[in-house]
Design brief:
With about 325 residues, the chain is of the alpha/beta class. The protein folds into 2 domains: about 190 residues, Uracil-DNA glycosylase-like domain (Uracil-DNA Glycosylase, subunit E, 3-Layer(aba) Sandwich); about 80 residues, no CATH class.
Amino acid sequence: MGPAPLLFVGINPRVSNSNRHLHNALMSDPSTFLELAGNRFYGQHYISPQGLEGHYSAHVRIARQLFPDQPFETIAAVTELFFCASESAKGLPAQRSPCATMYFERVLALIQPRVVFAVGSQAESYLVRRFGSVNSKTFVTWGQTARALMIVIPHPNQRGERLSKWQAAAEAARAYLLADKSLGEPSGPYPSLASDSIRHPMVSASTLLQRSGTPDAQSSTALHTVERSHLQPFKRPEESKAIPKVSYRSTRLHFKRKFIEPLQMEDTFEIVTANATWRMTKADFYRVFPNVLASESYSGSRGEYFYPNPPPQVRPFQVC
């Protein structure tokens, strides 16, 4: 196992009649367990667009949006807060997981992720409680200085609209990965992060990746991965002097999807109010305001999100 830029954190593996054979094979044969840690089960991909487990459609979708044509196991890993399988996660004391207390930091040190996706509200709650939150952002930390941005995604079984939130989460991760200069300069043949010009567009619910099904077993170990991808930094907000592609007026800091989403990631937009003007690129917006992207107000039918009072993280973008 080795580093990977993406780590997905769920609650626990699930066992049901549809996957009991998987659990039986894992518990009776260590080599099968190791094979699953490499994202294979009896020679077939376990997590992939045509994989054996449809529960991971969100994981695959996000990974492919960021790293097209790369096998899931080369750029992502999956782990759980609890390692024991159950038919349901109900009743599990997620905030007091002995498995996470003992092993989660070891998983982080092994995978060295740059982005940690919390799959569902229980995983989010645990990570926020353990690592804290500053300006609506949580950074998962380990060792002396290592850290990764936490981004929340809806659980695949969550009711309501999920596709746009998964896409928004992937774009927030892309912007953060491109901006994070702590990655340094890697060496070796690494897969490239998809640029804005080739990133996957929103697809309909009929897409191959949007498969229904109940959550089944998940490996209790992080999936086998290889070295992290080569990422190119983009300009910091204070370095951007571009003339805005879009400028609109409002009474407050008001993000409007109809103006922002048609832009390219490097394009600049401007929000003008009576007391202040803010200017940022779409990439800045995705990086700094992942909570806005994931909100029902912005991603849903309203298509907008406003702050009654400007939050601290918008200050670097105020131009007057």
